């Protein structure tokens, strides 16, 4: 199954930690096994060392009690036999108590030693019954000998299981030591058997066969055990059995077996005592060498435990330090690269872009310095990132300079056009005043209107280029006059209906921009609505200023289009050359942002779109007097109405709107020439209260003014 991680840094740590944890697990497993084996061997050796002495004392006491019991059964009338039996029993009880105390204080017995200890406890439980039979003389001599031999055999098996064997050599040596102990047991059994025979004063064939069998078992055990002993022990045993002490015992054994003559009991006792003492010394020497060998065999276990524990810890710690340091180094390099990439993409390059947009000078070497990296793969990535950053910064600077140059070209061309258009307007006004031909005057008015619109488009180009427009207003103007001037700057001005507006005066510094803003909104309303419908302009006082609402009766906009248009109006973004279909929105947004005017689009109650413009109160003041009343030169029914009330439904115009020039200009020209104009068939009453939407020149009420006076 694929492990899902989110970052490269986590992947690195996964690659580092997984092998490290696996190594730690393997080391832990090995160390536990090795250390536990060393502790187990050391514990077993310690237990064997503490229990071997009490076990050998118990075996020797049982052997002595056996001889005393057999001697007592051979002649119960002997007083010294009973005293010797009681004394040996006391020694046996004392040695068994020491053994049980030693065994009860140890918890380290396992395996064969533990099972043989259980057998020894169960076998020694018959000791009291055997003693009772001996005291009551209800057990034969051979039966007592066999019963006590069973007790010593259980003790010998427990003793043989105590020394722990580390390897096969140690196992053979330990088995040889157990064989020596068994051989001494056979000598002790011979001693007890012969002591009983000597006590009765006679020997039977059964007893002689038993003695012969014990001698054969002893020799067989020696023949099997001695070759497994170390050389020194083998030579010591061979020398002992070739010595006079062993020959004396052998002669006594042959004398008992052959039943030739009478064997003194003291001679037998002395010979067996000497042999048991000699073999005991050899047994102790061989057992000591076994202990030394076992101790030396424990040294590799301890050494392995130390190496697995100490050196293993050092190796694991070193591997952990190396891997963690390497992983931290990789993670740090990746983090540094990620931070530098994020800083370049989210901080430096956007900052350069903002500074370029603000017109500041940007040095590529300062904003995208050449950072030094190593020669590894991370260094290659860093150098590539450095190159990308420098190229992106250079491209942004070049693009800014190019855009700035294009904007300057546009501004330069627009300024020149403005100058020429302003001179053209002055020339047209002069020609209008001198002209006496009505038809020529109509054409001049049309040219005046077209020039006004051309000047507005040139100013829009200046605004899009980020420069300030050249027109500035001298003094405050009535809001109604501002709206009329805006209507005068669009093509289909005849379709605009202006409701009565609140009596406010607009600050002079905002008049030109507000005229431009309202004209752009009116232009959109007339372009995106059917030519036979009217566009209404209404105003209302609100707590924060005045709202102007422009209603058209077009098909409207989709919710997505409205959202996008309102976003462009509320967010001042850099103008893109690909957005040529929404130039007016960019112009409106720039003008609104300059004077903190809020513009929003929404669905119109007439089915089209409503543009709501909130003019803040800082730009307005109460009008001291109403706006001037313009002279009416043509019948009211032929002009767009300035309505006092709401309009129900669209207003239909029978005359061709596009055929006429501006309502004021064309009508005035035709009126001066005496031409007959088409009648307006609006069904609204109160035409006699209507007023021209286009402002007129106060100096010449008979001539419509094509645009507000600018400086």
From TrEMBL:
Q: Which organism is it from?
A: Streptomyces triticirhizae
User: Which reaction(s) does the protein catalyse, per the Swiss-Prot or TrEMBL entry?
Assistant: ATP + protein L-histidine = ADP + protein N-phospho-L-histidine
Question: InterPro entries, from UniProt?
Answer: HATPase_C_sf, HATPase_dom, Nitrate/nitrite_sensing, Nitrate/nitrite_sensing_bac, TCS_sensor_his_kinase
**GO CC, alphabetical:** plasma membrane
Q: Where is the composition biased (Low complexity)?
A: 663-675
Q: Does the keyword DNA damage apply?
A: no
UniProt keywords, alphabetically: Kinase, Phosphoprotein, Transferase
Extract the ranges annotated as region (Disordered): 640-711
What's the name of the protein?
histidine kinase
According to the entry, every stretch annotated as the NIT domain falls at 53-297
One of the record's GO molecular function terms: protein histidine kinase activity
Family matches, as PROSITE patterns: NIT
List all Basic and acidic residues biased stretches. 676-703
Q: Tell me which EC number(s) this protein carries.
A: 2.7.13.3
What PANTHER family does the annotation carry?
SENSOR HISTIDINE KINASE TRCS, SENSOR HISTIDINE KINASE YKOH
- Keyword Transferase carried by entry: yes
* Any one of the GO BP annotations: phosphorelay signal transduction system
**A Pfam cross-reference name:** HATPase_c
